[in-house]
Design goal:
11 helices, High-affinity urea porter, ATP-binding component, 6-stranded mixed beta sheet, Rossmann fold, about 25% strand, binds adenosine-5'-triphosphate, alpha/beta, 4-stranded antiparallel beta sheet, P-loop_NTPase
Length: about 300
């Protein structure tokens, strides 16, 4: 039998007293705990430490697997995003980036593994609407704005929450709402375009507007899929600045292939491959990883 840590303190010649001193504990013989009890205590302590690590994170994926017709699109994927962190996700086509986002947002259910938000919320048990309501916003690659409405109205409609779009347009804004819209327009570089129809924006400005519409829902975590695809170089640079500003108050996960943009983000990078994390760290570290060069950057 191995020595086990004794959880009691023996008094000289007498029975054990509780370590914390106080008032309870009837007299007990001073015996070591059964080895199984010791193992169980160690297991519980380990679980408690894991639970604590999970509770300190905003997004926690562990051992996540998802197969489509026997093909593992996500394969034992583990990924942790801290509160207030921005993370860039890179990786070759088919690496599982979109499927990972689908799992986080409840569009796809994993076959195995844990997916937790804000410590304790098991996302695998929530549907898409509930996940959006609890503060996870997603921007797809193609912007979907209301083209026949002004930029400001697009943001007001997203602020409206449970109001219908029609009601939102008739609704008289409170001073607080006007300020929020103004702040979002400023963050998304669209103040001068507030009265412009969304249809008349450039592609890059439409992407920013959609980011603004997400911000109007006040998400704690933003998932952004290839935001700079099709943007000019100037728009790409501005998008990096814009996302860095947003990430001062929220967590952001950005999937992107444009390495100039990823460098401008200047954040930790995760490279996915065949549904798992292939490499993780600074962009310099990840791009110097021979495995990343082989499957992605060297192509
Ligand atoms: N609904 C589905 N049914 C069958 N296979 C799927 C489905 N969704 C994804 N896959 C497969 O899973 C793998 C991962 O796809 P996924 O779209 O997640 O990759 P990705 O990293 O986002 O790629 P890309 O950079 O091209 O967008 C691919 O081989 C894809 O064909």
């Amino acid at each position: 039998m191995t020595d086990a840590p004794d959880t009691t303190t023996a008094t000289a010649g007498g029975p054990a007293a509780p370590a914390s001193g106080a008032d309870v504990a009837p007299a007990q013989p001073n015996v070591s705990p059964h080895p199984y009890a010791t193992q169980r205590a160690a297991l519980l302590a380990e679980r408690e430490a894991l639970g604590q690590a999970r509770r300190d994170t905003l997004l926690y994926l562990d051992g996540v697997t998802k197969s489509f017709d026997g093909f593992k699109a996500i394969n034992n994927l583990s990924l942790v995003i801290q509160k207030g962190e921005m993370r860039a996700i890179i990786g070759p086509n088919g690496a599982g980036k979109t499927t990972m986002m689908d799992i986080i947002t409840g569009k796809t259910r994993p076959d195995e593994g844990e997916v937790y938000f804000a410590g304790d919320v098991d996302l695998t048990k929530q549907d898409e609407a509930a996940i959006a309501n609890m503060g996870i916003g997603r921007k797809f690659q193609k912007p979907t704005v209301f083209e026949s409405h002004t930029v400001a109205d697009n943001i007001r409609m997203s602020l409206a929450g449970s109001r219908s779009i029609f009601a939102a347009l008739l609704h008289r804004d409170s001073a607080g709402e006007r300020q929020t819209v103004a702040d979002i327009l400023e963050t998304t570089r669209l103040t001068a375009k507030a009265g412009t129809l969304a249809a008349d924006l450039s592609h890059g400005q439409k992407q920013w507007l959609e980011i603004g519409m997400l911000l109007a829902q006040d998400p704690e975590l933003l998932l952004v899929d290839e935001p700079v695809a099709g943007m000019t170089d100037a728009e790409t640079e501005e998008t990096a600045r814009l996302l860095r500003e947003i990430a001062r108050t929220r967590s952001v996960v950005v999937v992107e292939h444009d390495m100039h943009f990823v460098r401008a983000l200047d954040v930790k990078v995760t490279c996915l491959h065949e549904g798992s994390v292939l490499s993780e760290g600074t962009l310099d570290h990840v791009s110097a990883d021979p495995r990343v060069v082989e499957v992605y950057l060297g192509r």
